[in-house]
Amino acid sequence: MPKTLRVLIGKPGLDGHETGAKIVARMLMDAGFEVIYTGPRQTPEMIVRSALEEDVDVIGLSLLSGAHFNLCSRILDLMRAKGVNDKPVIVGGIIPADDIPKLQELGVVAVFGPRSGSKEIVGTINAILEDMA
Amino acid sequence: MPGDRKEPKPAYKSEFLSAFHDELKHMEKTTLKDRLSGGINAQFKTYSGGEVKETKQEFRTGSGDFAVKRFYTPLDTADIDPITDIGLPGQMPFTRGRDPLGFRAHEWPLSYYAGYGSGESASERYKELYASGARELALALDLPTQIGLDSDAPMAAGEVGKVGLALDTCDDLLRALETIPLAEMRLATVGNCNSPWILAMFHTLAEANGHDPKDMRFQIQNDPIKEYTGRGTYIFPPSVAIDISSDVTEFICKNLPNWAPQYNCTTTMRWGGSSASQEVGFGIANLLCYIEAAQAKGVDPADFVPRLHLHMSSDNDLFEEVAKFRAVRRLWAKIAGERLKTDDPRILALRTTVYTAGDKLTAQEPLNNITRTTMHVLAALLGGADNIVVPAYDEALALPTFESARVATLIKNILHDECYVGQTADPLGGSYFVESLTTQIEDKAYDWYRQVEDMGGPVAALENGFYLKEMSDGMYRQFTEVETGERTVIGVNKHIRDTETKIDIFKGDPEAEQRQINRLKEARANRDQTRVTAALAEVRRVAEVKKKGERENIVPSFLEAVRARATIGEIYDELRDVFGVYHAPNVV
Q: Which residues make Cβ contacts (< 8 Å) with residue A88, sequence separation at least 6?
């Protein structure tokens, strides 16, 4: 039996609008992933700790407040420091188009926005995991 | 001449009606039966001889709660009493609106929700809005300010000035509003968990500008329940938050006659997935929870309930929303009359402010959002809302620009002033469909209200995750319906356009955070530290008294702390230390 893939859906920063994060969490559950949802208001340290403790395959970050550069770079730095930067980080939320390449430069693998549906999100995650396998 | 026409005698009238009813009942068993059973299998011959089929198996209201019939007849309203259930505008049970004049005496002010960055960038925006005629301003606050953190707190990094104004000390507020003539303005803010601090900030703002705070017209949202169900910007356990919120209500009612102490918000619950009837039922339960908390502190509901607003959304289903606004007034009048043991019409006539559905606006082809918000505003006007706030068409993309905010706020003025909406109160009153739906929503909302009360009220419904679960289920259902195409969203799952529309979106000031942090450091260095230390000790003392379960209002200690230039983080650190912070149940 194939291993059930585990995804962490994290809500770093102070923004507590959880709707998008919860929809993605449920969509991934329906697609057969095991989902660990952190709840809102997590520090980068808390996110990376949960990712390590839960031994997840993918880290998803929900970001809506505009603090995406700051939070993503801190999380990715921490992951490098802990030697877990092999885990793909994906971002969902309200990210201006101009910022997407810059997030990718930081090391974010995929960025989803309000128009991304379950096909796109689930398909991209599967493709990322297949590429790594 | 209308006067020449003879009024039909009442007896004739009722005879006519009863004959009509008999006829309809007969039809219901015969021809009407076929006419009312619909679905995609039902085939009809058109008069021109062609065959038509319906497009859906079942037609339901936008929030999915009720099946909608092909048409409605007097049989659907047979149990609704035209006097006691519908009545007249401005009379019990206020189904037809709280004002006997409807909108005839109403002027819609220009109002804006705005604020970003540090004091000086917001100040520019406020000046621009004032110059363009705005006399109502809702100040948007950044996230650190909303949850009582200083701009240099580690958790605040990257968030300062992002979704609103960064306020650390009262000097930041003074600077943001330095060019605005306060006496002409109605100022509001969404401060909820930080409400005693917002009160103290507005109070100090008035004093510093040489005004008596009593003369100001300030409005504080002061609704912490909203933060547990909407934006996640809560601090303390719900019961502590409600106690502190009722301190604010008490202080305003006893000292500041022109201030609005609270406006309760179910908008975020609706945006988070609740149905129309849940919005009504949960909203009424929440409102009563606050009213009874203030009542326990000796505040007479007659002193403040007439100043309250229930903030509701206005969603996509025009008729369901109209019925909802009518149903919430009727149900409130009944429940509040019973629970508060009053027949005072000022208490029983619920005031509603509508914040139209931001959650239904799309990032795709954002200009189409103007059409959506126009219909949301129309529902609010037809339903008799007292106040209407409209999100901008670029809401799904970023904070509004000045242009998009202006388009949004003028929708209600165009509908009211140009399109003759609002010449007569409750224009849909008496519609078989709308009356029937009003009653259906009222009944279902009452069941939701009872369910919340039976589990111990809104605090229990927050702590046990009930509210969050209901919202999450509703939201996911809506999302799935959009994905399967069962629910149409133009530009998203129907009539999709390949190319992206380019619009100008608002860009924040990247330097704002560092500027604000420098200013905060300067403020800390240039103040009477002895006074600050004493003020903070007093805040802590009152918090400890409250922690022991004894009663003391926390607002006076906040007034002194704010005047002394204590920072928001310093004040809230004292409270966090005493009350602890809340972790919401992690409901997916």
A: A57, A58, A59, A109, A110, A128, A129, A132
Query: B45 φ, ψ to 5°?
Result: -90, 130
Query: Which residues of B lie closer than 8 Å to A, measured between beta carbons?
Result: 143-144, 146-147, 149, 154-159, 162-163, 227, 230-234, 271-273, 359, 362-364, 396-398, 472, 475-476, 479, 483, 492, 505, 507-508, 583-584, 586, 588
* Token couple for B268: 């975020």
Give per-residue pLDDT as tens, B240-275: 999 999 999 999 999 999 998 988 999 999 999 999
ipTM field: 0.88
In a domain, B27, yes or no: no
- Whether omega for the bond prior to residue B89 falls within 30 degrees of 0, making it cis, is no
- The CA dihedral of A104, A107, A113, A119, to the nearest 10 degrees, is 110
B336 within a domain of the structure (yes/no): yes
**All domains of chain A in start order, with CATH:** 6-132 (3.40.50.280)
Distance of alpha carbon B61 from alpha carbon B65, whole angstroms = 6
Q: What are phi and psi of A10, to 5 degrees?
A: -110, 145
Counting the structural domains of chain B, the total is 2
Tokens for B278, please give them: 């849940």
Q: CA–CA separation, B429 vs B293, rounded Å?
A: 35
Domain housing B438: 84-484
Taking only the tens place, the pLDDT of each residue in B470-487 is 999 999 999 999 999 999
**Blockwise average pLDDT, block size 10, chain B, 588 residues:** 43 64 76 68 71 85 93 90 94 96 85 57 78 82 93 91 90 91 87 94 96 93 92 92 96 93 91 96 97 95 90 97 98 97 96 92 91 97 94 79 87 94 95 98 98 98 96 94 93 84 63 92 96 98 96 97 98 97 88
- Which helix (H) or strand (E) covers residue B556, if one does? helix B555-563
